[in-house]
Design goal:
This protein is of the alpha/beta class. The protein is built from 14 helices and 9 strands. The strands form 2 sheets. Strands 3-2-1-4-5-6 form a 6-stranded parallel sheet, with helices on both faces. Helix 9 crosses helix 10, helix 9 packs across helix 13 and helix 10 packs antiparallel against helix 11.
Length: 298
């Protein structure tokens, strides 16, 4: 993919002294760091499993000696980890990001966590004289690779503007949706919609198949009609092949549905949708793609 982002390289050039740190690499973190490197940002990375740093270090990133040192040495640090506990540990643990002198730094949590955890992280940063944004992303591995993520930001306007060139290098759209907590709530909301959509797609195809309609025919009906969407089209080949390598692991969506329930969602579908994905995870499908809900229901 060509990186023709209007004005971005000019903005990065004017911010050439800005040094970025990135904590947490994996299916999403690696392509996101690669995109930052491609447009010219200097990036220092840290991952607990050092082997996962190899790809981006070979692409030009620098490996940090520790989380503490990375926070001290860089102006802006982004964090992408799997859950609330991991995020809290990276920020506030012994030798974590906030364990050194970090006054004036900007920390950005791009992990999907609860609004409450985001507020806790903001308070922890403020106690150390640092600033904080939450910026969970909507999209999975392919959008991350293609710089097509949507970035849902919560925090102060001035911090958002400071970070916007970074967000522009990572996604097709970033939105400041409110104060810290609002970004996390927006991410839980869109992932709830994802869960409802995938459950509905799986149930639809299985119902049609049970009544004599071919799987591929039903998927064509869905995708060529008003019910079709980007996600139904993306997941259709996996259903046809009944192969579900993880672009977005089912266990992560299950976690997000749980967080939405803990945040207070009480809509009629919220409990059965969560229960369905939780049962699929308990049956050993957690590391497969979210569309493996089809296998569970079948």
């Amino acid at each position: 993919m060509q990186y023709c982002i209007p004005g971005l390289k000019t903005r990065i050039k004017t911010m050439s002294n800005l040094k970025l740190g990135w904590a947490g690499l994996g299916n999403m973190g690696n392509p996101m760091v690669s995109n930052l490197l491609k447009v010219g940002f200097p990036v220092t990375v840290y991952n607990r499993t050092r082997e996962k740093e190899k790809e981006v270090v070979e692409a030009g990133a620098t490996s940090a000696a520790s989380l503490q040192q990375m926070a001290i040495d860089n102006d802006m640090v982004l964090v992408m980890v799997s859950d609330d506990n991991a995020a809290k540990e990276i920020f506030t643990g012994d030798n974590g990001l906030l364990s050194g002198e970090v006054s004036g730094k900007l920390f950005i949590n791009v992990s999907t966590v609860s609004p409450e955890t985001s507020k806790i992280l903001e308070q922890a940063c403020q106690k150390q004289g640092a600033q904080f944004l939450e910026a969970p992303v909507s999209g999975s591995v392919k959008p991350a690779q293609d710089r097509m993520l949507i970035i849902l930001v919560g925090g102060k306007e001035e911090n958002y503007q400071k970070a916007k060139p970074v967000f522009d290098a990572l996604g097709k759209l970033s939105m400041l949706v409110g104060p810290v907590g609002a970004g996390s709530a927006a991410k839980l909301a869109i992932n709830y919609f994802l869960g409802v959509t995938l459950q509905g797609l799986a149930e639809t195809v299985l119902f049609a198949q049970a009544n004599g309609v071919k799987v591929e025919d039903m998927l064509t009906i869905v995708n060529e009609g008003a019910c079709g969407s980007g996600i139904t089209k993306t997941k259709s080949p996996a259903i046809q092949k009944e192969e579900f390598p993880a672009a977005f692991a089912l266990k992560h969506l299950t976690k997000d549905l749980r967080l939405a329930k803990e945040q207070g969602i009480q809509t009629p579908l919220s409990t059965p949708i969560y229960d369905s994905f939780k049962q699929a995870q308990d049956k050993g499908l957690g590391d497969q793609d979210v569309m493996a809900i089809y296998s569970f229901l079948k």
